[in-house]
Amino acid sequence: MFSDIVLIAATVLTGLVSGVFALYAHTIMPGLKKTDDRTFVGAFQALDRAIINPWFMVTFLGPVFLIGVAGVMHLGSDERARLGWLIAAFVLYLLTVILTIAVNVPMNDALKAAGDPAQIDVAKARADFNEAKWVAWNHVRTVASSVAFVILTGVLLAA
Description:
elongated, DUF1772 domain-containing protein, membrane, Anthrone_oxy, transmembrane
């Protein structure tokens, strides 16, 4: 029973995070792409500052912990068949976290460090940001987290 609650929480949080990344992929970044440099830099900086909050951090980091706990809870259980799927979901979600921390966050931080859009060369800041690279890696983490979500949903449905 408790293992199902942990699995449900892991699934919900994973779905929420994959939704955030997907929203960036299909709405936010395409919308920002059509803006001028000052608007892009200012809006992206504001979005990045806003997303660093306790709600998002729990949502983003919670699945690593909860999928791991769910996996450990299935080590000795008679539901061990779920374990392989939980490991796959854990690896995919861990990849999502690693990519975010290793690629997207440093790019975000560099753009924020460029300074106030009213006082910097926004064309240079935007070019240095490398929008295409950020978008490409966001697509990878969107797919990885979405597949983890689908796997977790399947594990729940198979119970």
